[in-house]
Prior knowledge:
It is a single chain. By secondary structure, the chain is of the alpha/beta class. It has helices at residues 22-28, 38-56, 72-79, 83-104, 123-142, 144-148, 164-176, 193-210, 215-221, 224-228, 276-287, and strands spanning 64-68, 108-115, 151-156, 183-191, 241-244, 263-266. It has a single domain (62-287), classed as Undecaprenyl pyrophosphate synthetase (3-Layer(aba) Sandwich), CATH 3.40.1180.10. Strands 3-4-2-1-5-6 form a six-stranded parallel sheet, with helices on both faces. Helix 3 (72-79) crosses helix 4 (83-104) and helix 5 packs parallel to helix 7. The two termini are 20 Å apart. The model is unreliable at 1-29 (pLDDT under 50).
Amino acid sequence: MPASGGRSAAGRPRGFGRRTGVRGDARRHPAGGSKLNQPLLGVLYRLYEHRLLKSLRHGGLPRHIGLILDGNRRYAQAAGLSGADAYRLGADKVDDVLKWCDELGIPEVTIWVLSIDNLERPEDEVRALLAVIEEKIRELARHPETAGRQRQLRAVGRLNVLPASLRQAIADAERATADHARCWLNIAVGYSGRQEIADAVRALVRARYRSGMTADELEAYITPEEIGTRVYANGSHDPDLIIRTSGEIRLSGFLLWQSVYSEYYFCDVPWPAFRKVDFLRALRSYQQRDRRFGT
Length: 295
């Protein structure tokens, strides 16, 4: 797949997260723990986090991270939770990741919370997921950290497919944070990468056609640069690093236009159990890449 891009010195495909056994552990212990003594394990993880943080500060960090929040339903099944409860835990995990990014000075994050395909799931499940998303967006908009960090919130996707109450929550959040310009959180909701590209081309054709261009003249204007100004998150940096949780090794159409030079990291742990050490490992892997940007 496009994420591989060759092999590392260790023989693993490049772009693949280092396998740590977390996937198997998460099935037995849904919170991501192990059978080791929990206090001792906590101490060891804190020491490991400190070591990772110290090493990361000597290398370059991404400006923009994309996150595919996968594994909520599998986590719920393993933990004996309802889907709604797992989604709420996943929503709370967003706060943790934003805090970790703030600590490291990473200014932009894009999270994929709902695809267009997700809307085809059973009605009760979709209703629960949409309710959690709406609640989280409203919470983020009024959270003191959002104002304190001057974080701007923006939704990207086909918002017209969403319920009216969720669209209103998005509009309120975007309006409340419109003047923030230090950090950015893009929330991909009702999102499809293929649809984003189709919508961008459609917008380009419509704008030029209305100006009276002929077909030949229009053809000259359909360029990557023109399309790029019409994608949903116009103005964002392309993501430097994309992380997908829960062990699935695919993009599923996430940020197809923007990810041409992104690095990828696939983590076995499900999203609600995603830990700081998992995040730091992803950043360590990113720093170990030789980014060539096609050259």
